[in-house]
Design brief:
heterodimer; A: mainly alpha; 2 domains; 13 helices; B: alpha+beta; Rossmann fold; OB fold (Dihydrolipoamide Acetyltransferase, E2P); six-stranded mixed beta sheet; five-stranded antiparallel beta sheet; 9 helices; 20 strands; 25% helix; 33% strand; elongated
């Protein structure tokens, strides 16, 4: 049945929706702009005022993936596919390590009582809000000594500063939501502590693991500072790779836009795929409320 | 198999007492009920037997084996929780099968299947096996949690308030079935409840617990008719037993009478045995208790005292009347079909054998007082 609304309420609705549309367009404009740039020829890009209608072209993508960019002026070779692979290796590696370390750590923080627990939890969180530049110099020196500069292991390690706090702080709530009595019941059913965790806790926090690793992955994927300073030509991810389009003689907007569109794909696909895991309903009905 | 012995067991939570100095022997195949108000230490006692809590002091023996430090999966006990604690991500079948699937037992799959089906038929949940707990009603969840506990052959069943969340009708049926099941399975059972009716109707023996201490352990009959102190007397029974202070005074001849405080017109007579008890163990002061169903409405000439009706609540099967006698109020249990007007005067008496006599200082029943 349709809700009966007074004219006054309807006007408020129009105004609010109007404001939302303006804000939405504001946020979405850069995305749409970059997306359109990726399909424009160099001359279309440089035309002013920008044409609303243009013949889309895939030349930016082909040159990007072919490794040869630049068209008529300032030709250069880039290894976009290599950058992309690096991003995948580093980001998924970092998330994987964070889950392996973070899930048991979070369980301990959520379930056990021990001295300095909250301090420890806060310290881990503080990695997240401390500016990266503040710690980069000492880390650089360490990495130089340990010969970890420009290695996957080094970057995956330092990316823990980004991904681990994310996973621990999101998962904590999920684990605390799992009733202790479920674990107690499973212990009585004849399962040891580790088996109980695998059988009862892990399946119930799976949506939390999906949500937190998705977010952690996106943050890791978007990171620039660690990668540009501690990485190098061998390990440069897409964020660093995109800088190559800014050279002394030209700004290659078209290639850059194509690279950005491709770089945004994994996070987008992952988000669409994980949506079904992001439902919290699984833990409902476990115990009497 | 199936004995539990508490030898002076204490469980502290930091500075707070969970249970204190609990000594108790539960016999093989016994249905033992623990009743007490919330926070009395009932669940703590169960969890200690289950191994979810470790005693701070004392010794706990299960089947004659010192079990203080055994982990829950190392003891052969099964437990149901007040919250049911069903695994929400498992189906009913998987929930019931869980104890049998433990790697500890290594039971073959076809045997597990047969057991799960046998138990679910017994509990009439065999049509629900593919559902998840979220799709079940309270009574059904209850059955599943019982099924999970009963599917194996434990030394002891631990049942924590199993009927508290099911509605009254189901509760009555489940109570009957529980009784029947226990006789059939012959497994030692410790049953925790705050509902004394449930406790007294199910238990072979009943333990009343308060503030972490076991107050009285005896048969349901003795607990009801001969409570050890005022707490047990008042906890067991509805409406609550009325207990008032009284002076022991001389009546006609050698007889003694109880003159109730603040109610000069109320004089209660005692029996011969009670007279001896009063002579031996009271020094003129006493606390006297009587249950609401013992206050009889009688013709005026037989009355011990008279009062006016303050309020009357007819329930379906009984009525609760509040009688005011010179400013003091007492509960009366009446037949439901009778009607009383507020302000109406009633003549009442209480038979001597329906009186409970408690020591004024210690509140212990005179029968038990040393």
């Amino acid at each position: 049945m349709a809700e009966v609304r007074t004219p006054r309420e309807r006007i408020t609705d129009y105004i609010l929706n109007g404001i939302l549309i303006v804000i939405f367009t504001g946020f979405l404009f850069p995305v749409l702009w970059v997306f359109s740039l990726a399909f424009k020829t160099r001359s279309d890009i440089l035309t002013w005022p920008p044409p609303l209608l243009f013949t889309p072209t895939l030349e930016n993508f082909t040159s990007l993936l072919g490794g040869l960019v630049g068209g008529t002026v300032g030709r250069a070779t880039v290894d976009f596919i290599g950058n992309f692979a690096n991003s995948l290796i580093i980001s998924s590696g970092a998330v994987l390590v964070s889950i392996l370390v973070g899930v048991p750590a979070t369980y301990a923080i959520a379930r056990f009582k021990f001295k300095g627990k909250e301090d420890l939890a806060f310290t881990i969180l503080s990695f997240r809000f401390a500016p990266e530049l503040m710690v980069i110099i000492p880390i650089y020196v360490f990495f130089q000594e340990l010969r970890l500069l420009d290695t996957y292991i080094g970057l995956i390690w330092v990316y823990q500063l980004i991904t681990l706090p994310m996973i621990i702080w999101i998962l904590r709530g999920y684990i605390e939501d799992v009733s202790r009595e479920l674990e107690e019941a499973c212990r009585i059913d004849g399962y040891g502590q580790v088996r109980t965790f695998m059988r009862v806790v892990l399946p119930l926090i799976r949506p939390g693991i999906a949500a937190s690793s998705l977010l952690a992955f996106i943050y890791a994927w978007n990171n620039f500072v660690f990668a540009v300073l501690l990485g190098g030509s061998r390990t440069a991810p897409v964020t660093v790779g995109a800088m190559q389009f800014i050279s002394a003689d030209a700004l290659r907007f078209g290639d850059m836009a194509a690279a950005i569109v491709l770089a945004a794909l994994p996070a987008l696909l992952l988000a669409i795929y994980s949506q079904k895991h992001l439902i919290r309903g699984l833990s409902l009905g476990a115990v009497k409320e | 198999m199936g004995t539990v012995v508490f030898d002076n067991v204490t469980k502290m939570y930091g500075d707070t007492v969970g249970i204190q100095g609990l000594s108790l022997e539960i016999k093989e195949e016994e249905f033992f009920v623990l009743v007490g108000p919330s926070g009395a230490g009932k669940t703590t006692t169960l969890k200690t037997v289950a191994g979810l809590l470790t005693p701070s002091e004392g010794r706990l023996y299960i089947d004659g084996k010192l079990s203080n430090l055994l982990k829950p999966d190392e003891r052969n006990v099964s437990m149901t929780f007040e919250s049911y604690a069903l695994y929400p991500h498992f189906t009913v079948y998987e929930n019931i099968a869980n104890p049998l699937r433990s790697p500890k037992f290594g039971i073959p799959v076809d045997k597990i299947d047969a057991e799960v089906r046998r138990i679910s038929r017994l509990l009439e949940i065999d049509h629900l096996l593919d559902r998840r707990p979220g799709e079940l009603s309270g009574g059904q969840k209850q059955r599943v949690s019982l099924g999970r506990a009963m599917v194996r052959r434990p030394s002891v069943f631990l049942l924590d308030e199993p009927l508290s969340h099911v509605d009254a009708k189901v509760r009555h049926r489940m109570r009957v079935e529980l009784n029947h099941l226990q006789r059939e399975l012959n497994t030692t059972t410790i049953y925790v409840t705050h509902d004394y009716v449930e406790g007294l109707s199910l238990g072979d023996r009943v333990g009343v617990i308060n503030n972490g201490q076991l107050v009285q352990v005896d048969t349901p009959r003795t607990i009801y008719h001969s409570p050890i102190n005022e707490f047990v007397g008042q906890h067991v029974g509805f409406p609550e037993m009325d207990i008032v202070g009284a002076d022991v005074v001389n009546g006609q001849g050698k007889n003694l009478q109880l003159a109730v405080d603040n109610v000069p017109s109320m004089r209660l007579s005692v029996s011969k045995e009670q007279r001896e008890l009063l002579r031996a163990k009271s020094n003129g002061r006493i606390r006297v208790g009587f249950r609401p169903q013992s206050v009889q409405i009688v013709p005026e000439r037989e009355a011990q005292f008279k009062g006016t009706v303050y309020a009357f609540n007819p329930f379906v099967t009984y009525g609760v009347l509040i009688l005011e006698v010179e400013g003091t109020q007492f509960n009366l249990l009446t037949e439901a079909y009778k009607h009383f007007e507020v302000g109406e005067t009633l003549a009442c008496r209480i038979a001597p054998e329906d009186l409970y006599l408690f020591d004024e200082q210690s509140s212990i029943n005179l029968t038990y007082l040393e």
